[in-house]
């Protein structure tokens, strides 16, 4: 009888202990639930902030609705104004010689800047971004690359001799993307460099100062209403083509004095070929030799030169 009572007592005690433990566990879960909800809210907020930060750091996601490897550029609606960040840049080439400006040229619009480079010179990405196009266009850009950047710009690099990147490749500012060349519709080795916003060409001189190998500021505020006026002003300030100096009166002195002054100063000078000119006539005019012209421009004596072609003569 006493044994039965003892067993009942032990069973009741165990049951109470189990009930108490379950209740305690339930209380713990109940107290934990608000914490879980708070953590979930924090996680959601952190994720939202991260997404917003990425979108701010990559305005191109807001500007462009599609990603295509089929076309070089396609104009879409431009914003009335847009702040373009220019920090963390790299000049596409170390060359300081602008041979042709942005603007109307030979009866049509020239939508970039031509910079003198030689075949094999390294061409680099201006900003970090993703390569959208790597193609060859025989009657236009030749070997060219298009990169979409996180700051909203797209840059185009034309007439290269070789591609060094592939489509959809992520590149950093300063990473080699190609080699200088003379492919496509080109009258001499050079880099054709374009900056576009929503597919619309902007004057690179608004943002890049090739002569000083620098950008024009930490940011550039694009305004659709004043862009044309600012573009013209940029050409006056920093985009004036070096080849234009060929018509300057200071270059109309005797060929002997030009030759001696050029060799004394060590300046690099260029001649823009005019209709009817030959290597021989240019050499005579610039006080040099055909052999030196060929050596400086990596061309043969029998190569046919065309009006508008840029030749180095010192």
Describe this entry's structure for a reader.
With 314 residues, the protein is α+β, with helices and mostly antiparallel strands. Helices cover 32% and strands 25% of the residues. It has helices at 2-57, 60-63, 227-239, 255-265, 279-285, 290-297; strands at residues 81-85, 98-100, 103-105, 108-110, 113-116, 122-124, 129-137, 142-149, 153-160, 162-163, 170-171, 176-179, 190-197, 200-202, 208-209, 214-215, 219-223, 270-272, 310-312. Strands 2, 5, 7, 8, 9, 11, 13 and 14 form an eight-stranded antiparallel β-sheet that branches. A three-stranded antiparallel β-sheet has the order 6-12-10, with no helix packed on it. A hairpin with a 2-residue loop joins strand 3 and strand 4 (108-110). The termini are far apart.
Sheet/helix structural class: alpha+beta
Cα Rg: 33 Å
Head-to-tail CA distance between termini: 123 Å
Series of secondary-structure elements, N-terminal to C-terminal: HHEEEEEEEEEEEEEEEEEHHEHHE
Give the fraction of residues assigned to helices.
Answer: 25-40%
Tally of contiguous helical segments: 6
Compute the average pLDDT.
Answer: 80
Query: Segments where pLDDT lies below 50 for 5+ residues?
Result: 243-266
Largest sheet descriptor: 8 strands, antiparallel
Number of strand segments? 19
Q: Tell me, briefly, the overall form.
A: elongated
The percentage of residues in β strands lies in 25-35%
């Amino acid at each position: 009888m006493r044994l039965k009572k003892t067993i009942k007592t032990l069973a009741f005690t165990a049951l109470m202990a189990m009930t108490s433990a379950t209740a305690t566990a339930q209380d713990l879960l109940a107290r934990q639930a608000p914490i879980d909800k708070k953590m979930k809210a924090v996680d959601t907020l952190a994720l939202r902030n991260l997404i917003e930060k990425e979108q701010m750091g990559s305005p191109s996601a807001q500007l462009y609705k599609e990603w295509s490897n089929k076309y070089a550029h396609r104009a879409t609606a431009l914003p009335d104004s847009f702040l373009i960040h220019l920090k963390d840049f790299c000049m596409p080439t170390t060359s300081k010689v602008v041979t042709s400006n942005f603007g109307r040229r030979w009866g049509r619009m020239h939508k970039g800047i031509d910079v003198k480079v030689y075949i094999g010179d390294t061409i680099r990405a201006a900003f970090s971004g993703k390569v959208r196009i790597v193609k060859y266009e025989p009657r236009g850009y030749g070997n060219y690359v298009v990169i979409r950047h996180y700051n909203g710009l797209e840059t185009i690099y034309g007439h290269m001799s070789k591609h060094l990147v592939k489509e959809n490749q992520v590149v950093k500012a300063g990473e080699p993307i190609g080699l200088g060349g003379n492919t496509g519709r080109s009258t001499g080795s050079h880099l054709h460099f374009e900056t576009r916003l929503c597919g619309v060409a902007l004057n690179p001189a608004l943002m890049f100062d090739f002569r000083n190998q620098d950008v024009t500021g930490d940011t550039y505020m694009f305004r659709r209403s004043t862009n044309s006026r600012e573009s013209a002003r940029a050409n006056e300030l920093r985009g004036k083509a070096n080849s234009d100096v060929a018509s300057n009166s200071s270059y109309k002195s005797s060929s002997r004095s030009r030759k001696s002054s050029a060799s004394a100063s060590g300046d690099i000078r260029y001649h823009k070929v005019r209709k009817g000119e030959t290597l021989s006539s240019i050499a005579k005019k610039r006080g040099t030799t055909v052999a030196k012209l060929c050596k400086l421009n990596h061309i043969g004596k029998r190569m046919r030169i065309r009006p508008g072609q840029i030749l180095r003569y010192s």
